[in-house]
Design a protein that fits this description.
Largest sheet: 9 strands, mixed
CATH topology of the largest domain: TIM Barrel
CATH class of the largest domain: Alpha Beta
Distance between the termini: 30 Å
Oligomer: single chain
Strand content: 15-25%
Number of strands: 14
Radius of gyration: 20 Å
Order of helices and strands: EHEHEHEHHEHEHHEEHEEEHEHHEEHH
Structural class: alpha/beta
Bound molecules: iron/sulfur cluster
CATH superfamily of the largest domain: Aldolase class I
């Protein structure tokens, strides 16, 4: 049986960033303790339902996993090991906010087996970071990378944002040079999206946002700079030194199975998609998951897989051929007999190109 991934959502943030629409609440000692117990219990009940399945990736995301004591993360990890068959070389990632107390958090999670760290840099320009609501400065991010390395862990990812207020080509170059100078083996570079209901969305008229053309230029500059530094683009927004791709996130894009634990966490197992409602109290009280229908359709495989540089394979032969025959799509795709992938131009226009391809099913 193919190993699955386990995602554990840690829905606590000390401050709320003005662009973020993820589910999160303020950390509180008693709530965090109860939450940890609920994650432990849910892990056991998932094991009763799906069996002691092999697991080769575990991902603590948020929210802010580093906002809880490291011992709580260790307890959750222990519950996964007790209830699932965790591979000895499993990739175990924890997302960290550089402004957290990493000096005490990191030793506890490393002792528990965490072997990959994803740090939120967003920008090396302190002005841009402040506009994004980030408390720490770039020097603290550098210090955080050093703390991770001091524990012997090289598998580090930095998050960068494109199209943020006040950003221009020069400040992006500064950010990219900061990342490549640190020689981390993985970078995620996401374009800022104004999500409804966020502070940024409500203030969108007054934000000094770069134009759409400028953001496209920034994206191309990012791809070129990171590729020249040896970080190969393996997904629309993700770059890695070969061998350091996020094994956990690859499961999402390859339409493979994973279990998500915590409010707002989604799962795909035994052909079904389901999720926990975005309500921490309901989760702590033991409320179950909500069915989200069948998974694994060709639409889903294309929607997720076309984000990857490797594209989608094993497509019905006539389908790849029909897409390849579309003159308007030709500049954006590469098609084989049963394979389809987007090129750089396709990545830039991915929403439109993927929409057109899905319309052909
Ligand atoms: S720290 Fe992360 S999850 Fe929390 S508000 Fe900021 S972007 Fe959102």
């Amino acid at each position: 049986m193919k190993p699955m991934g386990i995602y554990i959502h840690i829905p606590f943030c000390r401050s709320f960033c003005p662009y973020c629409d993820f589910y999160k609440v303020r950390p509180d000692g008693e709530l965090m303790q109860k939450y940890t117990e609920a994650v432990v219990n849910t892990t056991a009940s998932f094991s009763h339902i799906y069996g002691r399945r092999p697991v080769d990736t575990i991902y603590f995301g948020g929210g802010t996993p580093s906002a809880v004591p490291g011992s709580f993360v260790a307890d959750m990890l222990q519950a996964v090991r007790e209830n699932f068959d965790v591979a000895p070389d499993a990739e175990i990632t924890v997302e960290c906010n550089p402004s957290s107390d990493l000096e005490s958090f990191l030793p506890a999670v490393f002792a528990a087996g965490v072997n990959r760290v994803s740090l939120g840099l967003q920008s090396a320009s302190d002005g841009e970071r402040r506009a994004l609501g980030r408390a720490s400065d770039a020097a603290r991010v550098k210090q955080a990378v050093a703390l991770v390395r001091a524990a012997g862990i090289e598998n580090i990812s930095l998050d960068v944002m494109l199209g943020v207020p006040g950003q221009d080509r020069e400040s992006l170059i500064e950010t990219l040079e900061f990342c490549t100078g640190l020689k981390v083996p993985h970078i995620s570079a996401y374009m800022l999206k104004l999500e409804e209901g966020t502070v940024f969305f409500n203030r969108r008229e007054s934000l000094a946002l770069p134009s759409e053309d400028e953001v496209c230029d920034m994206y191309e500059l990012t791809c070129d700079t990171l590729e020249s530094a040896g970080l190969k683009q393996y997904e629309i927004s993700n770059f890695a030194v070969p061998g350091f791709e996020s094994r956990h996130n690859l499961k999402y894009w390859r339409d493979e199975e994973y279990l998500g634990i915590g409010p707002a966490a989604h799962s795909f197992a035994d052909g079904r998609r389901f999720f926990f409602p975005s309500d921490i109290n309901a989760f702590i009280s033991g409320a179950g998951t909500v069915d989200d229908g069948p998974g694994g359709s060709i639409e889903e495989r294309l929607m997720l897989g076309l984000r990857l540089a490797e594209g989608v394979s094993d497509l019905p032969a006539d389908f790849a051929g029909r897409v390849a025959a579309r003159a308007d799509l030709a500049p954006f795709i590469e098609a084989g007999a049963t394979t389809l992938k987007l090129n750089r131009r396709g990545f830039l226009m991915s929403n439109r190109v993927i929409f057109e391809i899905l319309e052909m099913i």
